[in-house]
Amino acid sequence: MEYYVRIRPDLHFHNFKMPLFPIKGSVYVPFWGSWSGIPDRFAFIHGSAPAHAYFNYFKRIDELIAMGCPFHPETMHAAALELAGVAVSESINCEFTTIRTKQDLEAGRHHDKAVYTTQDIFRYIEQRTDRP
Questions:
Q1: Where are the domains of the chain?
Q2: pTM of the predicted structure, to 2 decimals
Q3: Which of 13, 33, 85, 105 is buried deepest, with most CB atoms within 10 A?
């Protein structure tokens, strides 16, 4: 089985629970940090076709913009995966912070904490309860 992981190198994980039954052809992302799309800092991807769609969405920027998609990473990721027919599950239960640069640390900014919006929480509940 082919698995791919997208992880930014500046993340520090505090907890992580692997999806129980990853479905081939799907992309799994954290339930928070979607900003009207899908989170782009971490993803667990099952299969080469969804990985290709996930990692190459920049190649579709002109098409996405022409369709009215905002020029915004999380929104463009979601739109590109939808166009490719890739199922996305916003169900990974994890929490991480973003570690900042030396300049940020000197300025007193140590890390960015996880941001949970009300929309994120309702979408997570929906993902967890909308199962056969």
A1: 3-129
A2: 0.77
A3: 33
